[in-house]
Amino acid sequence: MRIATRFAPSPSGHLHVGGARTALFCWAFAKGRDGTFILRIEDTDQKRSSDAASIGFAKDLHWLGILWDEGPQWQGVGGGPHGPYFQSERLAIYNHHLQRLLDAGHAYYAFETGEELDAKRKASAAAGKPYRYDRAALALQPDEVASKLAAGVPAVIRLKCPGHDVTIKDEVLGEATIPATEIDDFVIRKADGFPTYHFAVVVDDELMQVTHVLRAQEHFTNTAKHMLLQDALGFRRPAYAHLPIICNPDGSKMSKRDKDKALRKAVAERKLTEPPTGIVDPGAWGAWLGDKNVQLDLETGQRLADALGITLPEINVDDFKRSGYLPEVLINFLALNGWSPGNDIEKFDLEFLRTSFDPRRVVKTPAKFDRVKLLSFNCDAITGMPHEEFLRRAIAHGRSYHPAFMDRMGEQGIAMLAKASQERSKTLDDMFRGNRFFVVADDALTWERSKNTDKAMLGEAPSGCDHLRALLPVLGGVTEWTSTGIEAAVKPYAEAHAAGQLGKAAQPLRIAVSGGTVSPPIFDTLAILGKASTLRRIERAIAAFTATSA
RNA sequence: GGCCCCAUCGUCUAGCCCGGUCUAGGACAUCUCCCUUUCACGGAGAGGACAGGGGUUCAAAUCCCCUUGGGGUCACCA
Description:
Layout: E1 4-7, H1 17-31, E2 36-39, H2 51-64, E3 71-74, E4 77-79, H3 91-103, E5 107-110, H4 114-126, H5 142-150, E6 156-159, E7 166-170, E8 174-178, E9 187-189, H6 197-207, E10 212-216, H7 222-233, E11 239-243, E12 246-247, H8 257-269, H9 282-290, H10 298-308, H11 317-322, H12 327-336, H13 350-356, E13 367-368, H14 371-384, H15 387-401, H16 403-421, H17 430-433, H18 451-458, H19 464-476, H20 483-497, H21 502-514, H22 522-529, H23 531-549
Parallel strand pairs: 1-2, 10-11, 12-13
Antiparallel strand pairs: 3-4, 5-6, 6-9, 7-8
Helix pairs in contact: 1-13, 6-7, 8-10, 15-16, 16-22, 19-20, 19-21, 19-23, 20-21, 20-22, 21-22, 21-23
The chain binds one RNA strand through helix 4, strand 8, helix 6, strand 13 and helix 14.
């Protein structure tokens, strides 16, 4: 039988890095064995699903280079003989198998409301006993059930568990036996007519001929339920491999809520009581501030972060894209969380992963996601790529995330900036984020006043400002305004007037034109800025620093 | 709390299944020095782990037990 794996996200948001890793391993396992990789959208929760989210998944997966053989059709991928691939479109299929279970006496209707069940759960908790469904509905007479159904009383369907222990065989975790007492008659169809996750998964995995289920370890205990369902339905049993969770450096589970956490912290630190105008509407703001469980939607959260001047932690694949990480690096790094090829190889690509991935080499322990190491990998990849490629990718990134910057710099300016930036960039975003001074109007530039800037500009004579005054005519006389042309003028000046210490002249220049102490190499910076801007900024800088120091 | 799983440098991990080749290897981070017009990059070097306790054995990171610690799960969410 042909190997088949599936990635089955619920479309309740963007693709999370943990999900991305699951997808990656599923893909690698199937594709490395001439198998099929299926994408299935588990949208059985009507309250939490959205079409936009499933498109987000497709985009993110596509960006990572993980393409599905079967699944929703999107830009030339997908389709397949086992559709539809949205669970919400498979209701008739589920109902058919539900009826089989009912007919065989393996399942039964139950009429307790959510509130009733909650009360029973609370009572058990108060008594210090674990809660299990009490099978009250099993005592109902057939005609009672029929009349309730006919009367339209909301009903769920539960699986009648056989009452024996279940031993799970797992490719990474080995064998584990779940005692019968731990598994109660769980719900397989909700009152709204939709199947629960457990039921839909089991049916779809069978019908889509999935042979290997690779999923996160949080599903491990669920496996017992799925096995019981397979037995009741007469289905085959796929092989299971449960992948360790990816978590934050502090050990907490990585989640979308981390963004809200970062925002709340920043808001508290700034003692903000009113929302920044036009970012969050006052009603939503109040609800959000008042309840830690309320989350801001992605766009609003991002706008608030921008307004507060903070960077949100990257959680979703799209966040890493926005931050300027390369897809091939993210994939490489993700694969290293929970798996390794077994030698000292750390840098590899999709193709390598495809041919070497083996679930038996998956680690059993949860991994803490180390963004610092990821950044280091990204830096290596960026500094190591051919410059044409860097230029191309930087431009694509800029068009998506910094269109105004791109416009103001112009094609030639961007090319020059890219040239000066590649070897000092850790992400595609660095070139834009760190260099905003290039695109502010000359007369709008302000200067950071700190120990460092004041020392460089106003230190002992000749001070930075003195050098700048002297440099003004020198630069003014430069006829070939290029990096080398400028260097040819400034170097001799430093030799003659700064004891050959180029820094004595370079640093004041840097501060004057950039407003701060960090920029690309100074001659490149001046060349990109142009002669007029350079001179104008120097004049204004001298004025700004000397005016306040007098 | 019940149940299930897990446990090697700060972090990701190699080694564990098939005990000796492990004075435990690599990577990121850290520290020192070098390079340097800033920030980075780069180069050289250093420190850093088998959770604890019992066994088994000539020999244990590797096998067994206990303790401790961590994670997952106990929904009409997936």
